[in-house]
Design brief:
Arc Repressor Mutant, subunit A; 5 helices; single chain
Length: 109
């Protein structure tokens, strides 16, 4: 995957407002690459330590924090989301109906 695609992913994730989440598939669709949700994950995993991308706002289509190689990152992501007011319900899932960012909101324009 080219570096410019990574930058497209980062540009979308940067405009997701605090207290909202997006799915990997939603980001893929917004960058014009539907069906490339996995590549969104690759881009976020490639982030270095010094960045301004709120990666924690990207979750899977079930409303769950995706598993990672290092399990503490899942707890860390959940903690960051809860600090923004995002609530986890049954089976540690976020209600996409309540917390998913509508990508037609003015921030995208």
């Amino acid at each position: 995957m080219s570096e410019s695609i990574y930058e497209d992913v980062y540009a979308i994730v940067r405009i997701v407002p605090e207290g909202k989440v997006v799915t990997y598939g939603q980001v893929a669709r917004l960058i014009g690459r539907p069906r490339h949700a996995r590549h969104v994950g690759y881009a976020l995993a490639a982030l270095g330590d010094d960045h301004d991308v709120p990666w924690h706002r990207v979750i899977n289509s079930k409303g769950e924090v995706s598993t990672r190689a290092h399990p503490d990152y899942e707890n860390y992501q959940k903690m960051l989301l809860e600090e923004e007011g995002i609530e986890f319900g049954v089976s540690d899932r976020v209600s996409l109906k309540h917390f998913q960012w509508a990508d037609d909101e003015p921030e995208l324009a």
